[in-house]
Amino acid sequence: MADTEVKAGKIYAAISNVMAAINAVGKNQKNKNQGFMYRGVDDVMNALYPALSEYHVFIVPQIIEQKREERRTNSGNVLLYSICQIRFRFYTDDGSYVDAVTIGEGMDSGDKATNKAMAVAFKYACFQVFCIPTVEMNDPDGDTPDPIEPSQEAQQKEIDTANNSPIDKTKISVIRNTIASKGLKESSILEHYGVKSFEAMSFGMWNNAMQLLGKYPDKA
Question: Could you tell me the pTM of the whole model?
Answer without folding.
Answer: 0.55
